[in-house]
Design goal:
nine-stranded mixed beta sheet, 5 helices, 9 strands, globular
Amino acid sequence: MRVVVATSNLGKLREFHDVLLPLGWELVPMPLGLTMPIEDGVTYEENALIKAAGVCHALKTPTLADDSGLEVDVLDGAPGVYSARFGDLTSDLDRNLYLLEKIKHVPTPRAAKFVCVLTLAYPDGYVESWRGEAHGEILEGPRGLEGHGYDPLFYVPSLGKTYAELSIAEKRQISHRGQALNQMLAAYREGAPKREISKLE
């Protein structure tokens, strides 16, 4: 099956390909010139569906999309779906510094979790979704040089490392996105799941 991945991030495309390789699907990026739908949902599920359904409708091809974010307990779940534009800032470094400033008065450990929702939309109007969550803590300063986003601040106590200190393989095993992808892989390895979960308008 040919599946479009609704992202301009080639690293994410490679991650999807590596995990879903056993399915034998041809995963391809969005074509140049196609505009990503505006993510104006208030949940990860809504935003993942907006992207997957919008691109699927435009291309008439099965489309895979995800939406993810960081939720910090002492911020009542913020930044959540607004993680990529937290504080209206444009760089990972600035968003990390902004987050640390917001919670500098809170002693460690400061519980947080990463959430990812993965959605596959079909041209016939049906969709499937999977959700992964990874729990950890926010450190008082960054550690590690790998990863992106909030990875240098997100500490996994059971491993004694931040996401930014993990190898790609290690992170894939425990991450929120890795969990969602593995759920999807398991479902399709057992045969295509029933597709009556949700219908697009």
